[in-house]
Amino acid sequence: MSLKKIFCCAFLTFFFLAGFGGSPAAGKELKLILADYLPPSYDDYFPANQIFVDYVNKHGKGKVQIDFFHSGKLLQAKELMPGLLQGTADIIIDTDSYVMGTAPILGIMELPYLYKDEFDFSRKTRIGTPLFSLINQELAKQNLIILASCASTPEYIWTVNKPIKAVEDLKGLRIRTAGRVEAEVVKTLGAASTTLPSAELYEALKRGTIDGSIHYTGTVPGRSLQEVYKFVTLGYFGSYGRQPYMRYDRWKALPKEIKDILTAAGKAMEEEGFNTLVKVHKEKYWPLIRKAGIKEINPTPEDTKKFRETCLPIWDWWKKQVPADVAAKAIELATK
After folding, report:
1. Which residues contact 82 (CB under 8 A, 6 or more apart)?
2. Calpha distance 296→299 (Å, rounded)
3. Contact 163/229 with Cβ under 8 angstroms?
4. Could you report the per-residue pLDDT of 9-27, keeping only the tens digit for each?
5. Exposure of 292 by Cβ count < 10 A (0-12 exposed, 13-18 middle, 19+ buried)?
6. Domains assigned to the chain
7. Is residue 132 within 8 Å of 149, Cβ to Cβ?
8. Cα–Cα distance between 194 and 201 in angstroms, integer?
9. HSE (CB half, 13 Å, CA atoms) of 258?
10. Nearest-CA neighbor of 112 among 197, 61, 183?
11. Looking at the predicted structure, is the pLDDT value of residue 263 above 90?
12. pLDDT digits (tens, 9 = 90+) for 55-86
C-alpha cells in the first residue's frame, strides 16, 4: 500500500473516531456549535434561545454540550442556513420567514389571518402536534429538521408618517418585509415591498428610504424603533416563529439519548420561552411603545373584514409553493 493510501486511511479513521462522522465516539462528549443572529437586546425572544442552550448544557453533561454564538458573531442572518448546510454550525436558531424561501412549508407559520392569536399559533405548532410533524416531514426532503418552534405575537404594520386605517391607505408606500409571505401581504395590500434585515431598519426609517415595516412587536424595542415610528396598525397580518434547525442527516446519526436531550430542550424553549415572550410584551414592550407616543390604530370591523378578504388570496399563492395534498392538510390542521 502506498504512503498516500496509508495516510488517507489513517485520516479517515481519526475522523470517525473523533466523532466527526455524525455521532460522537463512545464515551466522548459531543460538542455542538449553535449560531443565531439575534442579540440579547431582544429580551422577549433571546431568553428562549438561552433556555434551549442551558437545558442541553445542564442535562447533557458528559454526553452533549453546546457552544452558543449569538448576535451574528459566527453567522449573520443571511448566512445562517448556508452555514448550517455547509457545516459551519451544527444547529442554527432562525426566524422561519428568513427560511421560507428555502423551505416553503414554513409559510404555514406565517399566513395572514390564519391563526386566531399567538396562543392558537403556539398551541398548533409545537413539538408533537400533527402540524409540527407535517412540517418536519416536508423539511426532511431538503435535509432539514426543526427541533422546536417558539411562536411570536402577530405581525402588525408600523409606519412613520402615515396612519394605516384601511387597505387603501397603504397604496404607494414602501414597506419593509423580511420574507416571501410578508412581501406577498404587502404587495397584495397595495404597497411596495422592500427586503431588509432588522439590523438595517432604524437607519432606513430615519432616512425615509422606507415608510414603514411589517413585523412582530419585539422588533421595536429590540432595534430601538420606538424612536422613529409614529403609528401601528393592529391586525393579524402574519406571524412567525423561531426554530432550532439541524441537518436531517446529522440528526439521524445522533444517539437516541442525545436526541432526547435536544427534544426536551426544545419543549422547554417552546413552553418557557413563549411564556416569557408574552410576559415581556405585556409588562415591558407595550408600556415602552405607548410611552414613546406611538398611536395604536384598531381598524373598524368593516375595515378588518376588508383587510382579511384582501389577504386571503395569499393562502392560495402559498398552496402553489408546496405539494397540493400537503398544503390542504397543513391548512386543515392550522384552522381546525
Report:
1. none
2. 10
3. no
4. 333 333 333 444 445 555 6
5. middle
6. 27-152+240-282 (3.40.190.170), 156-239+285-335 (3.40.190.170)
7. yes
8. 11
9. 23
10. 183
11. yes
12. 999 999 999 999 999 999 999 999 999 999 99
Residue among 322, 316, 336 at smallest CA distance from 129? 336
- Are the C-beta atoms of residues 201 and 223 closer than 8 Å to each other? yes
More confident residue, 3 or 282: 282
In whole angstroms, what is the distance from residue 108 CA to residue 323 CA? 13
Residue type, 153: T
- The answer on pLDDT for 171 being more than 60 is yes
Report in angstroms the alpha-carbon separations of 147 from 11, 132, 331: 32, 10, 21
Cα distance between residue 57 and residue 221, in whole Å:
29
pLDDT score of 37 more than 80 = yes
- Nearest one of 68, 88, 66 to 258, comparing CA atoms: 66
Per-position DSSP letters for 179-210, written without gaps between them: SHHHHHHHHHTTPEEEE--GGGHHHHHHHTS-
